[in-house]
Write a structure and sequence with these properties.
This protein is an alpha/beta fold. Helices cover 35% and strands 18% of the residues. The chain contains nine helices and nine strands. The longest helix has 19 residues, at 237-255. The two termini are 33 Å apart. The structure holds ligand BV8. Ligand BV8 binds next to β8 and α9.
């Protein structure tokens, strides 16, 4: 039983956008990894984490207040990723690369699943849970074991932290500048699985539209982007995106 309610004509409309597009941005959020078994950022935290607000844990203040707690939260989320595999939504995004001269994935996700699926150009706006640096001097650290009860120390003596962007921290400027530049030059932005609430990433679809890009949204729910979108494909990305790829293949086949 399909859970999506995206119409055949809307899917074909998006496929036509893709068949004609030269420069496409896929802007993804936690929803694209939901069908890989990774809870979205706003899903009720499970178990031990049910009593904590992720927007408090994912801050430098939260880390300094209780380094072992924040360290264990990220360790728990990183462990969840050990067995996580990309889902059909991730693979559909990879498949689109062969139809579009320039396709880039700008993701808010820190799970690395786009790269694991084979996407070749991924901008991780909010960093990566698989990398670490030290809190005081940003020295990189590698091969950090799972299951530690508190943050290990860098060779300089400072505590290690995950190499993610916390609330209140600036996004890496060269990544943000790249995302802005891509939005100013894109024909089409496909916004997948994001609640569209977290800035400055949430502004990217609006920037793209201001510069003439068409906007497509893929999400089971409406978001602040839905009214902006030229087409809203309502449904889980793991179901909807493969249908879009099949429709583009049909157009390409007919052209051949
Ligand atoms: C900054 C890493 C400034 C950590 C994350 C205005 C302008 C600028 C800043 C602000 C502003 N207003 C407020 C701010 C501050 C803040 C902010 O935006 N707060 C929000 C809450 C209002 N922004 C910041 O702090 C940013 N920094 O602006 O710094 C600055 C400048 C100079 C100097 C110093 C400071 C930093 C933001 C980054 C925070 N880090 N992640 C970690 O993950 O632990 S954000 C984190 O939450 C995720 O990475 C993700 O980006 C975000 C959650 O959003 P989503 O990905 O959308 O996930 P969510 O769960 O919300 O939604 C899931 C969606 O999927 C839903 O719509 C659902 O319907 C859908 N879905 C479900 N199932 C499926 C599906 N979709 C498809 N298929 C399915 N099957």
């Amino acid at each position: 039983m399909s859970e999506h309610s995206a119409s055949k004509s809307d899917i074909e409309k998006v496929a036509q956008f893709l068949a004609e597009a030269k420069r496409v941005i896929i802007l993804s959020g936690a929803g694209v990894s939901k069908e890989s078994g990774i809870p979205t950022f706003r899903d009720a935290q499970t178990g031990l984490w049910a009593n904590f607000n992720p927007e408090e844990l994912a801050t430098p203040e939260g880390f300094l207040k209780d380094p072992p707690l924040v360290w264990k939260w990220y360790d728990h989320r990183r462990k969840l990723l050990e067995d996580a595999q990309p889902n059909p939504g991730h693979y559909a995004i990879v498949a689109l690369e062969k139809f579009v001269p320039h396709l880039i994935v700008v993701t808010q996700n820190i799970d690395g699943l786009h790269q694991k699926a084979g996407s070749t150009d991924v901008v991780e706006l909010h960093g990566s849970i698989r990398k670490f640096f030290c809190f005081d001097n940003a020295h990189d650290a590698k091969d950090v074991p799972y299951g530690l009860e508190e943050p290990p120390l860098c060779w300089c003596g400072s505590q290690l932290r995950p190499a993610v962007v916390w609330f209140g921290e600036a996004l890496p400027s060269r990544l943000l500048m790249r995302a802005y530049a891509e939005c100013e030059n894109s024909d089409l932005l496909i916004v997948v699985g994001t609640s569209g609430l977290v800035q400055p990433a949430a502004s990217l679809p609006f920037l793209g539209a201001q510069h003439g890009a068409k906007v497509v949204e893929v999400n089971p729910e409406e978001t602040p982007v839905t009214d902006l979108a030229d087409v809203f494909l309502k449904g889980p990305s793991g179901e909807v995106l493969p249908l879009v790829v099949a429709a583009v293949e049909k157009i390409r086949g007919a052209e051949a």
